[in-house]
């Protein structure tokens, strides 16, 4: 594929056009970097990675394999945007965490932080379990959309304030299987 074809790559999801934003190799390199950083920071601490379903499952699977020391995994599921591209501002829990997090070093693994409401909810919720520490990891961060002040300890990419799909992120359940990340094409 030529550079021009790569830059102009688009995909259609649920009838709307998205253009290539972060390609597979860029994502892979950054995830490996985050893995190295977390491996160094958590050496000997056996962290528990808590993935936020559904969007974070691909990022979590790749990130976990870039962490060299012992680590555990669990999942939580929150309400999603459903058919919409905009948050309704209400966070509800659809699946609770199973692991006992008492005294554990917890890393919350999100695909994207938009308003920050979900990440704030998760940090507060996990603190109730008496962990030794809680840190937030997100592959993507839309700083211009973030309304809630929540510390993000590891951020893959700061991105524009537009809807994205791919690499686990969906638009009304489609698009999760795209290997690259695409952003809504406003010119369509
Ligand atoms: P927040 O609570 O920060 O507003 O939103 C967090 C959740 O909203 C994410 O875990 C993700 O499920 C969804 N979300 C936010 N922005 C996007 C986006 O651009 N694309 C997709 N597919 N989901 C998003």
Account of the protein in words:
With 188 residues, the chain is of the alpha/beta class. It is built from 4 helices and 10 strands, in the order αββαβαβββαββββ. The strands form 2 sheets. The chain has a 6-stranded mixed β-sheet, sandwiched between helices. It starts with a helix and ends with a strand. Bound molecules: guanosine-5'-monophosphate. Guanosine-5'-monophosphate (5GP) binds next to strand 6, helix 4 and strand 9. Guanosine-5'-monophosphate binds at residues 52, 55, 80-81, 87, 110-119, 163-165, 169-171.
Question: What's a quick, concise take on this entry?
Answer:
This protein is of the alpha/beta class and about 190 residues long.
Secondary structure elements and pairings:
Blueprint: H1 3-7, E1 10-13, E2 16-22, H2 24-41, E3 48-53, H3 57-64, E4 72-78, E5 93-95, E6 105-113, H4 117-127, E7 133-141, E8 154-158, E9 164-165, E10 181-184
Parallel strand pairs: 3-4, 3-6, 6-7, 7-8
Antiparallel strand pairs: 1-2, 2-10, 4-5, 9-10
Helix pairs in contact: 2-3
Guanosine-5'-monophosphate binds next to strand 6, helix 4 and strand 9.
Give the terminus-to-terminus CA distance.
23 Å
Which class do the helix and strand fractions yield? alpha/beta
- The count of domains is 1
Strand content: 25-35%
Integer-rounded radius of gyration: 17 Å
Annotated CATH topology: Rossmann fold
Mean pLDDT level = 91
Main beta-sheet strand count, sense and barrel state: 6 strands, mixed
As laid out across the biggest beta sheet, the strand order is 5-4-3-6-7-8
**Number of helical segments with 4 or more residues:** 4
Q: Any guess at the CATH architecture?
A: 3-Layer(aba) Sandwich
Shape: globular
CATH secondary-structure class: Alpha Beta
Can you tell me the residue ranges where pLDDT is under 50 for at least 5 consecutive residues?
none
Helix content range: 10-25%
What hetero molecules are bound to the protein chains?
guanosine-5'-monophosphate
């Amino acid at each position: 594929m030529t550079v021009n074809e790569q830059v102009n790559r688009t995909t259609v999801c649920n009838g709307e056009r998205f253009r290539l934003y972060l390609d597979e190799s860029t994502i892979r390199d950054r995830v490996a970097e985050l893995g190295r950083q977390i491996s160094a920071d958590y050496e000997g601490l056996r962290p528990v990675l808590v993935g936020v379903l559904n969007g974070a499952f691909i990022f979590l699977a790749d990130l976990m394999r870039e962490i060299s020391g012992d680590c555990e995994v669990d999942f939580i599921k929150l309400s999603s945007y459903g058919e919409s591209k905009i948050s309704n501002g209400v966070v509800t829990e659809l699946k609770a965490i199973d692991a006992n997090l008492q005294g554990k070093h917890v890393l919350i693994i999100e695909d994207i932080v938009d308003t920050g409401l979900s990440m704030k909810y998760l940090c507060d919720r996990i603190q109730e379990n008496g962990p030794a520490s809680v840190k937030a990891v997100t592959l993507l961060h839309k700083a211009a959309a973030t309304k809630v002040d929540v510390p993000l300890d590891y951020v893959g990419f700061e991105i524009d304030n537009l809807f994205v799909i791919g690499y686990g992120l969906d638009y009304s359940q489609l698009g999760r299987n795209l290997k690259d990340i695409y952003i809504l094409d406003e010119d369509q």
